[in-house]
Amino acid sequence: MAQHLTYQTQGTCSKLIDITVDDEGRIEDVQFFGGCNGNLKGICQLIHGQKASEVKNRLNGILCGNKATSCPDQLARALTEMGF
Asked: Is the dihedral of CA 15, 73, 66, 37 positive or negative?
């Protein structure tokens, strides 16, 4: 059964991440609301079809400038919340 989460981000320009992971644990759809539109669309295309656990491991801890987090890091946190 597919899992879905709308995650409210903290500390980033994006405000929400809408995530769907299929029943095999692969990223089916990701949409960011707010943030750097082109970069985030690119990230979404690159991770489509990838294993959520691998995406989480790759993006976890990425920082944006002097912020304590980033949009990719927030996605990793959302995937953690989903159990990946």
From this structure: negative
Contact 63, 70 (CB under 8 A): yes
One-letter amino acid of 34: G
Compute the distance between CA of residue 63 and CA of residue 56 in angstroms, rounded to an integer: 14
Q: Give backbone dihedrals phi and psi of 31, rounded to 5 degrees, phi first.
A: -135, 130
pLDDT tens digits, 28-73: 999 999 999 999 999 999 999 999 999 999 999 999 999 999 999 9
Ramachandran angles phi, psi of 64, nearest 5°: -115, 110
Three-point CA angle 43, 10, 80, nearest 5°: 65
Q: Which of these, 60, 82, 66, 75, lies nearest to 10 by C-alpha position?
A: 75
The DSSP output letter for 25 is S
